[in-house]
């Protein structure tokens, strides 16, 4: 995707003239600093800058430099605000944030994935109070709904990704697979043919690690008519559909039709193997496209929907991260400063540049229009993510469920009974 950045930015400049969002906002020269509470500085004498502290997640090697430039540009454009952005790796961000919260030093703005626990502890403010109407109107409504608890939207999306099946066209053709698998039965048949053709190639890539084991559960549950919750919001972790789903994928592993150790080989390991022609098929996000195309000798690959069980519907997995605002007893000046921050970040050209740099998909309609105009392949991905299902992250118990389904998968790999494991998890979560 990075190769289309120049075209995207040109399209963004054109579209921004008619888009509903704001461009670079004027400087905020309001008079006082933020209010007390949760580590935010006490009010300062009139005329001092409004201090604004942000913790942002690190997505890649370029993230820190981008935020450093953003901080410089923002402070130059807004003389009344002193913005400080701290970029923290995904490995450390949960510990860092929870430690700050415990020490009454919560950031003003946090960029992370989970949010429900903070809502449950009364730590967040409703996000609409801190976002201008112009910026708020840009977001895809389905994305906003992922942060809805009891009718209140608590966070806004920063970016998103979707998942699809990647397959090596040359390997499938050489192995005699004449149709891209669309069902579980076709997938297993294709895996058996690939294994018979070349025992050195892993037919199917599976990640049951702590990185993406919950995604693995969702891939097979959702394409078998199962889910984490039913329509009434009740946990259904041990449903017959979910049991069958886990048994199916564990069966592929035990039959030797997947990578050797799904409990330790992450999606990043799999995409490396896929790019090298050592994995024939795998499920992954849109970022894999640019990763493979960036190789010196890229493989010949295709993208298709995730296979579903016979009679069931395919489903992509949508993943999005968020911005949220902590309740730091903010003054009116701080509220306006936070609105200015979001207007600045979601300015169409700047935001599109950020999303493309990080190899994700936009969470705003204007960003989607810019990306689709710049690259037809991106347009298809935007359509996928727009119709994808999402993890139930608004549920306070999601963190436990996420770890729970991963544990179930890993115990099943060691010979555990899937029904009994999911029954125990259901009892733990639902009581």
Please render the helix and strand layout as text:
Layout: H1 5-15, E1 50-58, H2 63-77, E2 81-89, H3 93-102, E3 109-112, H4 116-120, H5 133-136, H6 141-145, E4 148-149, E5 152-153, E6 156-161, E7 163-168, H7 169-174, H8 184-197, E8 202-205, H9 213-222, H10 240-254, H11 267-275, E9 279-285, H12 287-293, E10 301-304, E11 317-325, H13 332-345, H14 348-357, H15 365-374, H16 376-386, E12 389-390, H17 398-413, H18 418-430
Helix pairs in contact: 1-14, 1-15, 9-10, 14-15, 15-16, 17-18
Gist of the model:
With 431 residues, this protein is α/β, with parallel strands linked by helices. Helix content is 43%, strand content 15%. The protein is built from 18 helices and twelve strands.
Rg: 23 Å
Shape: globular
Mean pLDDT figure? 87
Question: What is the CATH class designation of the largest domain?
Answer: Alpha Beta
Structural class: alpha/beta
Helix/strand order:
HEHEHEHHHEEEEHHEHHHEHEEHHHHEHH
Helix content: 40-55%
Please identify, by name, the CATH architecture of the largest domain. 3-Layer(aba) Sandwich
**Low-confidence runs of at least 5 consecutive residues:** 1-46
Any idea how many domains? 2
Number of strands: 12
Could you tell me how far the N terminus lies from the C terminus, measured between alpha carbons in angstroms?
46 Å
CATH superfamily of the largest domain: Periplasmic binding protein-like II
Strand content: 5-15%
How many H/I helical runs?
A: 18
